[in-house]
Each structure stands twice: as structure tokens, then as C-alpha cells.
Amino acid sequence: MPLPIIAKGIMKSLIFTVTAGHTGTEYLAKLFNLIDGVAAYHEGKANCQALATPLGYNTIFPAIKLRPSMGIDFIKSSREAFINSLSGHTYVETDHIIGKGFIEAWWQLKIAPKLVFLKRDPRSIAKGFFTTGVWPCYSPAGFSSTYGPDDPGVLPLPRWQRLTPYQLCYWYALAMEYRQLKYKLFLSPEIYYEISLNQLTEYARFTAMLDHLNVPYSDIRNEHAEVSATKHNCQQKIPSFRLMLEDIDFEAEEAEVRQLVSWYEPYLINVIENQYE
């Protein structure tokens, strides 16, 4: 039996993202905030709306990797009352950390949010994380906001300790594609929608997503075009890391990661190659 989309305690439709990050999450939140009756947040920020700010998922993410049940306490203490205090019919969060264990916490509470599988090619995602110093297993920022191969339930990566920081960033991008595929195995199609960063710029595709997720909207074609013409991800890139990209043999390093992963999830590699290459 499918879980209820709106359950006792939360009297709104919920929409969250399952995505790696560096995929257009802030842009998506700004698009959602164009719609009357929708309150959309990106990493604890309400963007252009003068709304209160909830506690960020990043504050507890390292802990729930070790003790997933803490996600339930976090939702009860920082989300239920906050969401119900807002006006409107739909609450959206586009924080990429939600899809790394917090969705399961919502399910444990018998609440099934609708999901946006926000996609981008793995190399662009890996470059984004590498140049901002968010390296899985290698940097404090990577530990606090991404998975590592030793975390439970993630995409297997044997002998990861001998790989480079860029290869771990690339693996992480694949790992989030893997997570999307796993969710699709048991979720009803009406619960989720797949869309890429490039497709978000197309008004027809954006509204198709709204229709699929049952979000009512008026004609916001002009507003969509205005938001789409603006740069959104202003996360600071570290100059030395940008220079290091020039010395990376992307084809070779990525091929090694795909080969290691293919021993465990060959289907994932086929999906990646068909979608992005």
C-alpha cells in the first residue's frame, strides 16, 4: 500500500529533491517560489521570500550517517511545526542533503513527499564539488555534506583509498544516480519526476513537472524566463583547485571509477552512458 502524500501532522503537499548538488537546486527553488501557494527553500534559505529560516539538514547529516533514526527526531523538532506555520498548499525543499537519508525518515513517519530527481551529467557535478573543495572522504566539507564509499547503503567502490579526490567526486555523482535508480524500483511513478538542469530552462518542461506533481499554477512564463536568465549558483570556487583541474585526465580517471563500479552495478553504468555520453 502506498504511503499517504499528506498525513496527519503535515497539512501540505511536500516536494523534495533527490540529487547530488551542483545540479540547479537553488534555481529550482526560485522557480517554485514564483508560484502562489508554494513556499520553497534551498539549503535553509527562502530565497526571495521574507520567510523564517528552518534549521538546515547539514547540521545533523554527519550524525545520521551513523544513526539514521536521528533524522526522525530532527523532522519532528525542526520541520513539522515550521511547515504548518506557513501559508499555502505546498512546501518545497531543494537541499541536496535531504536525499541522503532524510527521505527515509519521512517515510518512517508515514509521510511520502513527492520527489524531484534533479539530474546533470556526472562530470559537471564532479567538477563543481572538486573546485569548491567538497571532496568525499578527503575534506571536512565533503564529510559534512556528501557520502563516502564506507557509508552504509551507498554505491560500492572497492579500493577507494587509492583513488584521487576528483575520482571520489565523480563516484559521488554516480552514487546519487544510483540512489535515484533504487528509489524508482519501488516508488509509484506519480510520486516522482525526473528533470535535468537544462530542461528546467524550458517552460513547457517545467510546467509538465508541475502538472505531474499536481502543483496548481498560473501563467508565469515571463517570470520563468527572467529567473532562467539569472546566474544562481554563486558558491565560491577555490582558485588553486580550479587550476588543478587542468592537470586531470578526465577520461582516464572517470573510466577507472566506472570500471570499479561496473563489477557491482553494471546497469548503472549503462544508464549513465546512455543518458550523458
Number of helices: 14
Percentage beta strand: 5-15%
- The H-and-E topology, N to C, reads as EHEHHHEHEHHHEHHHHHH
| Helix residue percentage | 40-55%
> Any guess at the CATH architecture of the largest domain?
3-Layer(aba) Sandwich
Descriptive report:
The chain is of the alpha/beta class and 277 residues long. The chain has 2 domains: 1-120 and 187-234, Rossmann fold (3-Layer(aba) Sandwich); 122-184 and 247-277, no CATH class. The chain is 45% helix and 9% strand. It is built from 14 helices and 5 strands. It has helices at 25-32, 61-66, 70-78, 80-85, 102-108, 122-131, 140-145, 165-184, 197-200, 203-212, 221-228, 239-245, 250-262, 266-276, and strands spanning 13-18, 38-41, 90-93, 114-119, 192-196. Strands 2-3-1-4-5 form a 5-stranded parallel β-sheet. It starts with 12 loop residues before the first strand and ends with a helix. The model is unreliable at 1-7 and 47-51 (pLDDT under 50).
